[in-house]
């Protein structure tokens, strides 16, 4: 449904006919870590996340899984090679 509380005019999964069903009845503004994300929208001079009603809760366990400005870097571990086994494999 269309939000009628904080994010007027945008689609909100928490909005019901009786109002906002999220705890407290309103979405919370973004935090510093959310700056630069493509999912941030500005409504009534405040910035809110378009995907999460409580952005601070998304960042509690590390990076937000919805953040578009954060790149996940996968570090590949080099596996130790046994030289004896490597020499046997090379002879095939």
Kindly describe this structure.
The chain has one domain (15-90). The protein has helices at residues 55-58, 83-90, and strands at residues 15-16, 19-20, 40-43, 46-49. The longest helix has 8 residues, at 83-90. The chain starts with 14 loop residues before the first strand and ends with a helix. It has 92 residues and is an alpha+beta fold.
Radius of gyration, whole Å: 23 Å
Task: Output mean pLDDT.
Answer: 83
- Which structural class is indicated by helix and strand composition? alpha+beta
Q: Percent of residues in helical segments?
A: 10-25%
* Secondary structure tally: strands: 4
Order of strands, main sheet, comes to 1-2
Give the helices and strands as they follow along the chain. EEEEHH
Helical segment tally? Answer: 2
Secondary-structure blueprint of this entry?
Blueprint: E1 15-16, E2 19-20, E3 40-43, E4 46-49, H1 55-58, H2 83-90
Antiparallel strand pairs: 1-2, 3-4
